[in-house]
Recover the amino acids of this structure.
């Protein structure tokens, strides 16, 4: 009998945490592909493609993975701006209504999209009082200045929905917003948690302008992002005993993982643990749907007995 064991390293990582910026500035090559970040706040469920039309898959939290090194530009089209950073679609999140492009870096952002225009780039650097162009390629979560100007420009885009960023955001507009940008830069640079302030400002701006998803928009994007399909419309396959055994194992493994993460998070209130619990919930729902579709009896399995024993402790 295989025991249901959640790897200790995963739990320990949740307690020790990680520096968000260090993680994002390390090599973008993972063991299984090339990772890119799409951020206004984190963008969930976007269609992310490279210059050859290859598509990246969403691995959560605004992070996407190409199988091989992508050809630029990388384009992120549509999706949901995760305004509270919990990696879930909420009614107060807002839709990304314009595509964003990256021409030279693994970060797809509004500023990275805009700086292909030399005059716009110069205006951004002037208003932010920076001399290094690479600073404009940081994520909002990596730079107080990038966060501030992104929030101000986002407000302009909300007021002019349907207008492309490159058509709306001109050097003269950027310079006219300099005072608003300076106020936010000062706020974020003096904050003990500028990322949280950035998210709250982002959410408040969208709510004030009536641009949040609401219940209907939330459901629409949940269905899209989680790839919901009508399983009954897909012909059943013949499952071997090994396949049935694996499905049973996965169901009980995800149950245990979800409950472990949830229990630890209730005691330690860790973002990693909360996101992991939410992710395991989605995994469990997906496996449950397959178990139901194939009418598998998993209640008397060895794995179920192990899980029940765990629950009772």
């Amino acid at each position: 009998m295989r025991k249901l064991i959640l790897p200790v390293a995963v739990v320990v990582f949740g307690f020790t945490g990680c520096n968000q910026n260090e993680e994002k500035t390390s090599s973008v090559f993972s063991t299984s592909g090339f990772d890119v970040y799409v951020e206004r706040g984190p963008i969930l469920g976007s269609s992310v493609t490279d210059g050859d039309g290859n598509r990246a898959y969403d691995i959560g939290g605004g992070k996407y993975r190409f199988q091989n090194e992508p050809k630029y530009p990388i384009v992120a089209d549509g999706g949901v701006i995760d305004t509270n950073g919990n990696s879930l679609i909420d009614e107060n999140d807002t839709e990304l209504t314009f595509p964003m492009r990256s021409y030279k870096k693994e970060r797809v952002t509004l500023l990275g999209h805009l700086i292909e225009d030399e005059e716009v780039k110069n205006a951004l650097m002037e208003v932010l009082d920076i001399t290094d162009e690479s600073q404009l390629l940081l994520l909002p979560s990596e730079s107080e200045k990038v966060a501030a100007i992104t929030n101000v420009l986002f407000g302009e885009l909300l007021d002019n929905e349907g207008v492309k960023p490159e058509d709306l955001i001109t050097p003269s507009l950027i310079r006219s917003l300099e005072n608003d940008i300076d106020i936010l830069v000062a706020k974020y640079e003096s904050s003990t948690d500028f990322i949280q302030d950035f998210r709250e400002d982002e959410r408040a701006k969208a709510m004030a302008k009536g641009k949040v998803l609401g219940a209907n928009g939330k459901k629409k994007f949940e269905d899209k992002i989680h790839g919901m399909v009508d399983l009954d419309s897909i012909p059943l396959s013949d499952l071997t005993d090994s396949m049935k055994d694996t499905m049973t194992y996965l169901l009980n493994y995800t149950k245990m993982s979800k409950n472990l993460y949830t229990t630890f998070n209730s005691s330690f209130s860790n973002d990693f643990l909360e996101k992991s619990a939410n992710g395991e919930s989605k995994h469990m729902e997906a496996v449950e749907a397959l178990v139901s579709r194939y009418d598998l009896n998993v209640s008397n399995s060895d794995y179920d007995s192990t899980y029940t024993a765990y629950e009772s402790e």
Observations:
- The CA atoms of residues 102 and 108 lie 5 Å apart.
